[in-house]
Write a structure and sequence with these properties.
Blueprint (H helix, E strand, L loop, with lengths): L2 H6 L6 H8 L4 H7 L2 H4 L28 H26 L4 E6 L2 E6 L4 E7 L4 E6 L3 E8 L4 E4 L4 E2 H13 L16
Antiparallel strand pairs: 1-2, 2-3, 3-4, 4-5, 5-6, 6-7
Helix pairs in contact: 2-3
Length: about 190
């Protein structure tokens, strides 16, 4: 048994348990079988259970007021703009190890030894999800007041994060143009 589970268990034997055991033998023998912490009554408080800390934050449940048809328009326009900008950027860079693909709502940007980005639509939550080799996973909601996709935990936009990370990775200024989302719809 691992130590995490053991530290969170209640004692399996206590003084009342010793009394039950004593029916089969002497009470002194039953108490001898118990550890010192199990001999005290009432039992001493257990140390608090250790909690496992996750590298990935738990999912945020945020119900969007954005109508479904607008979500699809804004998300599709964002993904199309991003694909076009990334294709142009990779053509300018000219590195054969760099590649961008878009299929079934999932955009994959491969940057060779620098890592791979995966960006996809998440219609049930009305979000765009990002997996970055530099900053990890994030979930973006459309923010009408900013007209951009924004990560609720740090209030940073998808556009700002990708522009910064790609600029650092590629060693040149990058602007994907993912602002004013609602004006990009057809």
């Amino acid at each position: 048994m691992n130590t995490l589970k053991r530290s969170c268990r209640l004692p399996s034997r206590s003084l009342p348990a010793a009394r039950r055991v004593s029916l089969a033998g002497s009470p002194q023998r039953a108490l001898h079988l118990l550890t010192q912490s199990q001999r005290t009554w009432p039992p001493s408080p257990q140390p608090p259970c250790q909690r496992r800390h996750m590298a990935t934050p738990p999912p945020q449940v945020k119900h969007s007021d954005l109508p479904t048809h607008l979500y699809h328009q804004y998300a599709d326009a964002t993904m199309d703009t991003m694909l076009e900008s990334l294709e142009n950027l990779l053509d300018e860079v000219g590195d054969p190890e760099y590649e961008v693909e878009y299929s079934s709502g999932v955009l994959t940007l491969k940057l060779g030894d620098k890592g791979t980005y995966v960006i996809n639509k998440q219609p049930p939550n009305k979000q765009i999800w990002l997996s970055s080799p530099f900053s990890g996973p994030k979930r973006y909601d459309y923010a009408p007041e900013q007209d951009e996709w924004v990560y609720a935990r740090d209030a940073r936009s998808l556009n700002d994060l990708l522009n910064e990370e790609l600029s650092n990775a590629l060693g040149r200024e990058v602007d994907l143009g993912l602002t004013a989302v609602s004006s990009q719809t057809i």
